[in-house]
Fold this sequence. Notes:
By secondary structure, the protein is α+β, with helices and mostly antiparallel strands. It has helices at 2-13, 21-28, 47-56; strands spanning 29-36, 62-72, 75-84, 91-102, 105-117.
Amino acid sequence: MDKLLDFDRRLSGLVAKPAGWDDEFRQLVSSGFTRRSWDPETPVRGVDEVVEEIEAGPGRPVRVSAEHGWLHSKLGVVTTTCTWDGISDDDDVQVVRVYTRYTETWRCEYWQETRAHRPAV
């Protein structure tokens, strides 16, 4: 489980756009990868569209406040609660990523985001 959580953190870190991020992103996701945004107006995106979207915006370091993972054979799921620059301080994003283990490495198959507004108390 620790290796999968490390892998998920690595994938999250690429949103900040460190040098070579796009090549590494393509290596960490499967050829059938899809990402669904919290915004219902945003269509489901594949690898190329996600790379273009990240490339077009500023690098956004992710701040993770919670993470959980589950494994079953060659299937893994990681959920994280996080925030990043450009998202209001009053909102969290719940990210669910589904992974498949291929021989010696994991690949992300699916990435779902849900935006949650934290009410002021």
